[in-house]
Design a protein that fits this description.
mainly alpha
């Protein structure tokens, strides 16, 4: 867990402008940054049938998703191959 205003705070910056690309509301207009670098994330039910994944369709399989997160969160969270396989198997069960 990362807490704001502490040494553990984590900021992730992306070149993707997020929801502001759809809404047309730049961060300088709403002053909350609610549309900038923000994404509406869907639920996981039926996720095995909704490939490709991520807002930019960059992950073709659930295994690609797990590999992405294993790289993204390393070294804060270390996922073994078995951890990733277990999570993929769980997601494939969600209906």
């Amino acid at each position: 867990m990362f807490d704001k205003n502490t040494a553990n705070e984590l900021h992730v910056f992306s070149p993707d402008i997020g929801r502001s690309g759809v809404t047309g509301v730049p961060p300088t207009e709403d002053f909350t940054f609610a549309n900038f670098e923000a994404f509406k994330i869907p639920q996981l039910r039926g996720v095995k049938d909704t490939a490709p994944y991520f807002h930019d369709n960059s992950a073709k399989t659930l295994e690609d998703v797990m590999n992405h997160y294993a790289r993204f969160f390393f070294p804060f969270i270390v996922l073994s191959d078995q951890d990733k396989a277990d999570m993929v198997a769980y997601m494939k069960l969600l209906r």
